[in-house]
Amino acid sequence: MAKITAQQKLHLKKLVKELSSHKAPHTEFVTVYVPAGYDLTKIIQHLAEEQGTAANIKSATTRKNVQSALEKMIQHLRTIGKTPPNGLAVFCGNVAAGEGKQDLRVWSTEPPVPLNIRIYRCDKNFVIDILQDMLVEHNVYGLVVLDRRDAILAVLKGKSIVPLKKTHSEVPGKHRAGGQSAQRFARLREGAYKDHFKKIAEHMKEQFLPLGNNLKGIIVGGPGVTVQDFINKDYLTGDIKKKIIGTRDLSYTDEFGLQELVDRAQDLLAEEEIAEEKKVMNQLLTMLRDNPKKVAYGEKETLHALEMNAVDLLLLSESIPEDKIFNFEEKAQTGGAEVRIISIETREGIQLRDLGGIAAILRFEIEQQ
Question: For 33-50, what is the mean pLDDT?
C-alpha cells in the first residue's frame, strides 16, 4: 500500500467520521466506488439506469430519496468529468433527521491509494469499510521461504501476503556412481547450493532494502538445517542480516510455505508490535527522567506544546475518547508532529494512561504553563 501523508490521513478520517454519523431509516443512501482508470461515463449511465429501477420502490418517501440521491450524484459526477488517477469514492443521501424532511448531501473524494474495486450500493449506511482500511497502518515484513532448490520472497502487508520474487536452482540430482565421479558430482552440487544461496541473498537486498523504514523485519522459513546454513554463513550482508527477526521450520517451500510461515510466526509478529510500542514509550520515560523540559504530559501541557509547534512526537493512549484522539491528531498534523497510538497491553502503555493518556517529546524546551 502506498504511503499516505498526514494531511491525506486527516482528510480521510474526517470524511469517514462524518459519513459514519449518518444512518437512513430505509435503504436509500447511495455509495459508489469507481476504480482507477474506469470510464466515468459508464458509471453515470449505470446510475441513470438505477434511477429507472428505483421507480419500482413501493414507499413514496424512499423512492423519492433514492431517485433524488441518484440524480444529485449524476450531476456531481458530470462536474468532475473524468475519473481521478486513484479512482473516486462518492456518497449521497438525504441525511435530514426525521421523516419527510430534506437535506440531500453529496460527498466525493479521490482516495490516497488507487481503488481496484467497483461498487454501487443502496443501503441504510454509507459503505466506508474500504476507506477505513486505508487508514490502517500496515507494518511491512519481508518473508523468505527456501530450501536447497527453490525460494520465494514476499512481503506481509497487514494480513495480505504479496509475492515478490521466485528463484529456482538447477542443483544436480544425487549421483549413484562411485569413486571420482561421485566426488565430482558432490562438488558440483555443493557449488550449485552456494550459487543458489548467493542468488537468494542478492534478491533479498534488491526487494527489501528499498522499503527502508517501512520494513519492520524479515522472517525466514524452510527446512531447519537449510535455513540455519543460509543465515549463519556469509551469504547475507549486515544490513539484511540485522533485519531478520526470526526463523521458522516449515513443511512447504512454495506459496503454501508463505502462508505456513505467517501462521507459525504470529507470536513473533505480535511481539514486534509490542516491542515497537515499548521502544517509543521508553524513549519518552527516559527523556522525562533525564531532560523533563523536553517532555509534555497531560492534556493542558501537551496542548500548550502543540500550540507552540514544539511537539516532535505525540503519544496518545488508546484509552482516551476517540473524539479527543482525533482533535489532538488534527493539531499535531498542523504542527508537523508525528503521532503514535499506544495500547494499554504493556506496562509502559499503562504508565502513559496513568499520565493522563497524552504525552509528547518536544523539539525544544518550552516554559510550561
Answer: 96
Query: Is 3.40.50.460 the CATH classification of the domain at 274-362?
Result: no
Strand partners, 145: 152, 221
Backbone φ, ψ for residue 141 (5° rounding): -120, 140
Is the pLDDT higher at 236 or at 11?
Answer: 236
- According to DSSP, the β-strands at 215-222 and 311-317 are unpaired
Domain ranges of the chain: 6-135, 140-264, 274-362
Give the pLDDT confidence of 126-180 residue by residue, as tens digits: 999 999 988 876 678 999 999 988 999 999 887 678 899 999 887 665 555 555 5
Identify the CA nearest to 92 among candidates 80, 79, 75: 75
Alpha-carbon distance of 247 to 116, in angstroms, equals 34
Report the distance separating Cα 290 and Cα 254, nearest Å: 50
d(CA 40, CA 85): 12
Task: Note the helical H segments in the chain.
Answer: 6-20, 40-54, 60-80, 129-135, 179-208, 224-232, 238-241, 255-264, 266-290, 299-307, 322-334, 347-354
Q: Which fold has domain 6-135?
A: 3.30.960
Please state the pTM of the whole predicted model: 0.55
